[in-house]
Design brief:
- This protein has one domain.
- 6% of the residues lie in helices and 43% in strands.
- It contains one helix and five strands.
- It has one helix at residues 77-81; strands at 6-10, 18-20, 26-31, 34-45, 49-58.
- Strands 2-1-5-4-3 form a five-stranded mixed β-sheet, with no helix packed on it.
- The radius of gyration is 14 Å and the shape is elongated.
- The chain starts with 5 loop residues before the first strand and ends with a helix.
- The mean pLDDT is 81.
Length: 84
């Protein structure tokens, strides 16, 4: 059985585009130093892949002083994996 790994992005800066997402539930794309998140849905895009909805933008390091409490931040899993 062939597994389709094509993600069709809905909303955000990459609206209407597609890319390979593997089997990830959360797709993070870095654009101009910010992380844009897309979340996998149960919707299929024709026969060609899965729809991912835009979930927002975060700084790679999470909260910034004066914006939110940096100690209580929820950082990007991608940024954490890269040691940011």
């Amino acid at each position: 059985m062939e597994t389709n790994t094509k993600a069709y992005l809905v909303g955000g800066p990459r609206d209407g585009s597609s890319q390979d997402a593997g089997d990830q539930a959360l797709l993070e794309i870095e654009i101009d130093g910010m992380i844009h998140r897309y979340i996998r849905t149960t919707q299929q895009h024709g026969e060609g892949g899965v729809v991912y909805n835009y979930d927002g933008m975060v700084a790679p390091g999470g909260g910034e002083p004066g914006v939110e409490d940096p100690a209580a931040r929820v950082a990007s899993p991608k940024a954490d994996a890269e040691g940011q």
